[in-house]
């Protein structure tokens, strides 16, 4: 449905997007997960035609996208990071105005505005001015604006940043519903957990490059299928490295002085490892055991944590 080939964007010497390629099918929710500055907004802006790429192509339903390709733009709904609402107007008026920009009118527009108000849960407040809304309500309306013309491709740039947990859940539900109705969704976030909950497939983006791509399960397999054991203490990386030598079922995801993240395979493997570490002269003062997560995938790929 959408296909991005070797997309690049440079600002002078600075490479914001460095040759990224991916595809998403009809009705799929595809995620771009990466920290601030990874190139998410730049990528979304190029796809939506707000920015021109330095090189590379974007095709939507086989048609090539460019800032002047207005027929391609019409199949897209764009939800920017910042809300773009008329505060003096009501939710219904904002939606009607936006639908009008996409050549909708009359009973079709009226019906669709009602559906979207229902979908985003604002039907009860639909005739109040937007300036009286909470932050979460404004975010939901912002999402509604991107949906009013029933886009085949929905582009969302971190739509849940700064919203309360309840509004966040309802935003994710609206996105899932749009995808169920056949809309392809391209979703950017720096929240691991959100990417994990929402996206069927995702790409991990850092410094303008895709480091890995796949389903959440495929990505997690990169750090092994067992448990992830994080050990902290006053040991050196070298000491831990030696201590692990007799443990072929243990693989170091990251190993630094005072902290090791280990992937441990097999039943009872973690218990055997911990017994052994404690039996040696390693000073261990904290242990955390978890199933594999995207966070660990990110650490393995970049050597650092993805924090807010
Ligand atoms: N207009 C611009 N001029 C120069 N550099 C930019 C511009 N826009 C973005 N960048 C840089 O490009 C990189 C990617 O930015 P962006 O796409 O906004 O990342 P993200 O949305 O993942 O946080 C960053 O290093 C950012 O500073
Ligand atoms: Mg951004």
CATH architecture of the largest domain: 3-Layer(aba) Sandwich
Distinct ligand kinds? adenosine-5'-diphosphate, magnesium ion
The N- and C-terminal alpha carbons lie at a distance of 32 Å
Average pLDDT, rounded to a whole number, is 91
What's the CATH topology name of the largest domain?
Rossmann fold
The CATH superfamily title of the largest domain: P-loop containing nucleotide triphosphate hydrolases
Structural class comes to: alpha/beta
What is the helix content?
Answer: 25-40%
Number of strands: 14
Topology overview:
Elements lengths: L1 E10 L2 E11 L4 E5 L6 H8 L7 E6 L2 E2 L5 H4 L2 E4 L11 H11 L4 H14 L15 H13 L5 E5 L7 H16 L3 E6 L2 H7 L2 E6 L2 E6 L1 H6 L5 E7 L3 H7 L6 E7 L2 E6 L4 H11 L4 E7 L3 H9 L6
Helix pairs in contact: 3-4, 5-6
Bound molecules: adenosine-5'-diphosphate and magnesium ion.
Characterise this structure.
The chain is α/β, with parallel strands linked by helices and 308 residues long. It folds into 2 domains: 2-220, Rossmann fold, CATH 3.40.50; 224-291, Elongation Factor G (Translational Gtpase), domain 3 (Alpha-Beta Plaits, 2-Layer Sandwich), CATH 3.30.70.870. The chain is built from 11 helices and 14 strands. It has helices at 40-47, 70-73, 91-101, 106-119, 135-147, 165-180, 192-198, 216-221, 237-243, 269-279, 294-302, and strands at residues 2-11, 14-24, 29-33, 55-60, 63-64, 76-79, 153-157, 184-189, 201-206, 209-214, 227-233, 250-256, 259-264, 284-290. The longest helix is centred in the middle third of the chain and has 16 residues, at 165-180. It starts with a strand and ends in a 6-residue tail after the last helix. Residues 40-41, 81, 157-158 line the site of magnesium ion.
